[in-house]
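User: My instructor asked us to take a sequence, write out its structure as tokens, and then describe one feature of it. I'm not sure where to start. Here is the sequence I was given:
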Amino acid sequence: MAFTLPPYREPDFRQPSLAAAPAACTVPAPAEGVAPEQFHATSNHPEYVHRGGGRWLLAPESRMDCVLVLSGERLAVVEPRRLTAGEAVVVGRTENGEDGIFVHTEGFTEPAAEAAEKFAFGNMVPSYRIMPEGQVRPVYFYIVDMSEFSTDKLANRGSAQAAAILTNVQDFLVNLWRSLAPR
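Assistant: Let's start with the prediction itself. The structure tokens for your sequence are:
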């Protein structure tokens, strides 16, 4: 079976709740490495910020527990410790458009049977990447471990795409190598 990336489905910003969404608000970072009150903490899903007038910006990358910084019409994902005083940090506590922030958790949908064959891990791992030609594609990572505890712990730390392969790592790598080797 050939591997194909599932297509990315952009949100329908015409649906009433998103069409009526306010423009997202920003507040200047009060000091170096300090996020303002009510800052929006990012997820590893595609996140959009409403600029008003139906213009939504997609964050160019994703990472858990960072902040969104707006500079003109550019959006950046920044670790709070790397904030510069005065940067325009997106604020809001909701992720459904009510605050002009929309987290798109259903951008990559595929049949359950196919999804079960893909695995990922980690709460610092993005679930998508924007390619140079503008295509939004999912990101896959693999975790192989003998311990169900460690794989479950990673799966429960914020990665919606996380799953595990429970096996001996050496056996897995040998079989993977054999499967990927040119014939």
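For the description part of your assignment, you could build on this observation: The chain has two domains: 16-103, 112-180. Try explaining in your own words what that tells you about the chain.
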